[in-house]
Amino acid sequence: MREPTRRQIFAMSFVALLSPATRLIPGAAARAAGHAAWLCPIVAAPFVMLVAALVSRALSTKAQGEGLGETILRATPRFGRFVLFIYGLWMALYAGFSVRSAASRFIYTVYTGSSPWPFVAVGLGMGLLAALGHERRLARSSEFFRVLLLIAVVPILFLGMAQADWSELLPVSYLDAPGVLFGAIETLGTVCFVIVNVPFIETGAPIEKRTRSAVFWSVRVCLFLAVLIAAVIGRFGPELSGSLTYPFFALVRNTGLFGVAERIEAPVTALWVLSDFVLCAISLMTAARAITASLSLKAKPERPKYLQPGTLVTIACAALALACAIVIAPDSRIMRIISDKWVVFANIAAIFALLLPALAITAHKKAKLK
Amino acid sequence: MRKATTALAFTLALALPLSGCTLSVYNSYRDIESLKVVQAIGLDLSEDGSVVLSAATGPDASGREPLRITQEGTSLDAAMRSAEELSGGGSLFFSGTGAIVLGEDAALETSRWLDALARSKQLRLDNELYVLRGKKASTFIAGDNAPEDVFADLDSLAKRISEYGPAPATICAGVSRSLLSSGAALITAIELEEGALGTLTAVPAGFAVISDGGLIGWLDDDEALGAGFFLGGPGLSVVELETVTVELSGAEVTVEPVWEGDKLSRLDIHLAVNCSVIEARAGSNFDSQESWDAIERELAGKAMSWLESALERSIELEADFLGLGRQVQTSHPLKFDAMPESWEQLFPDLDYKLSGEAKILNMREYVRSPYPEVET
């Protein structure tokens, strides 16, 4: 079977999800839903499953070598061209935001007082290298990264839950419903981000029973996020969790491994680079593929690889990402406002107002295209 | 082949900086042998409101004497840095701190320290937190008569109060949670006594009551035992009754609000305690239901009196450190939100009704003592 395989697709999705999910979801859910914050991913789960099913249905007509962009374009050429171009630009900007955000996290958690630019330069450089390569390399790496990240995150969540104060989590009532629903929006946007973006580079052979796998993956991820939030809220309570910049990393900082190892935040934060790297690479790849498809740029066999349209568009996207990373936030206060407010809702708008209508049309035309 | 050789050379080049810490290309690594790991810190206030930090390291395998240091700074971080300057060779490693002791004056500004801990790069919110009654924390951490291993002293105290009551030692994160959700919190209080080795040793002294961000009072003896029922249980507290000695083995408090329309008219608080009889007089005979009932009634009455004294103190100080408001809110959220008076307005005049029961789970070895009664 041509890669990326189903296993690799979900590995990429999980690895790319960890960075924005740990940055945004615990704090946002605590602010929105208080003690009931851990319910936000569970409430978001059915909607996430629907989006996952819609993406899988849209992909059911794809040919080997095609990704989601090409599939959308075949189903709705004019509207699809417009959607893909705008979405591609947004993803290029998002790649810049993601590396700047990762740099902020590094500065905040480990390298206090450092300049963000070395982190931005290295992150974007590595992301560009990956984006210029074949997606199967990123897919294979993600399988390995997923194991490493799980080795780090599972003990933290286990210890976090073991030390949680359950009275901070229970009981919950239907009065918490408005807050939980509002908090679920953030989870929905973050999980759907990887669900819709990874398929842009899903150029392997069509995956059998993709809908079922994607729906099960969505359920697993939402449960994982519920445990993650519960561990944070159970330790710090909703008020403090909602105030902390990186509540998950505060949990990591305050977790010791049975007296054997203390201060594990540095290696854990370092491991999160893997997630930042995959997220940046996927954002750049998605941006380049969406723009290339929207402009109908075809590969030119007579040109060397570095002058192929796809390569040039990827480099242009990386340049746009760099510009975005440079101008987006002069300090951590503005970075937090942008991260918590603007980017979250811009991302939700880009997915639900722009991409999902195109996906719905693509899924609807499935039979016709077949 | 050429690619493989390049990759191998690159990998080997990456291994170069892994040869050691002190000569590494990185500058943030420190030789572990030069670290002086701080295990306990004390915080006091100077007359002008500056931070007086005292720090104690533990004895280590190399035979180095534990380091004691006291430094002043305008902020906690400033005091930590100036302590490092005076630490001599090597460097102070505050990240290993396991316990924080607030002097009584510093406890007046508890929220200041919690805020500093939440932001700190080196100190953590999962440290145990104590308040030293009536003294400066530096007396215990770095004073002339301080214990040789301050952290070991505190650690054994934490184990004792967790096992025998009134409640497990408080943790900074738990104090933060309570302070932010209920507006008040309890911190384990300690006092100093001269131990068997001639040095000072920490002994439990109830709880410090924190409200409005600072110390407002204390819970002693019975009040502390009563509060312990809300803070993870009183452990295996030993209780002397008229005819027997019992060891508590679990307790549960339930809080049920009584409503009159929208108004909260009363709280019904029920306490259930279990115990084991661990000592009785020689010749005693408890081979009847009546004798068991009498012990259970006496214990229930005693436990309720502790609970009542904690509740009375909470109402007197207008500090809901037992988290009653939060319990009512979570069990009856609609009615809580619709109350004509806020919980804060209602709390000082809170009416409550106490009930309690005790159950003997076990009477050690026998109900009828085989030994003859001692004539006195």
Structure at a glance:
The complex is a heterodimer of chains A (370) and B (376). By secondary structure, chain A is mainly α.
List keywords for this structure.
heterodimer; A: 370 residues; mainly alpha; Amino acid/polyamine transporter I; B: 376 residues; alpha/beta; GMP Synthetase, Chain A, domain 3; 2 domains; nine-stranded mixed β-sheet; four-stranded mixed β-sheet; 12 helices; 13 strands
Descriptive report:
Helix content of chain A is 76%, strand content 0%. Chain A is mainly alpha-helical. Chain A has a single domain (6-369), classed as Amino acid/polyamine transporter I (Up-down Bundle). In chain A, helix 1 (6-33) crosses helix 10, helix 3 (68-75) packs antiparallel against helix 4 (77-109) and helix 8 crosses helix 9. The longest helix of chain A is centred in the middle third of the chain and has 34 residues, at 210-243. Chain A is globular and about 65 Å long. The relative contact order of chain A is 0.23. The model of chain A has no long low-confidence stretch (mean pLDDT 89). By secondary structure, chain B is of the alpha/beta class. Chain B folds into two domains: 32-219, no CATH class; 229-376, 2-Layer Sandwich (GMP Synthetase, Chain A, domain 3). Chain B is built from twelve helices and 13 strands. In chain B, strands 1, 2, 3, 4, 5, 6, 7, 8 and 9 form a nine-stranded mixed beta sheet that branches. In chain B, strands 10-11-12-13 form a four-stranded mixed beta sheet. In chain B, strand 1 and strand 2 form a beta hairpin. In chain B, helix 8 (221-228) crosses helix 9 (289-317). The N and C termini of chain B lie far apart (99 Å). The A-B interface holds A 35, 112, 163, 165, 167-168, 170-171, 173, 175-176, 235-240, 244, 250, 253-256, 262-263 and B 95-96, 118, 121, 124-126, 173-174, 176-177, 180-181, 323, 326, 330-331, 333-334, 337.
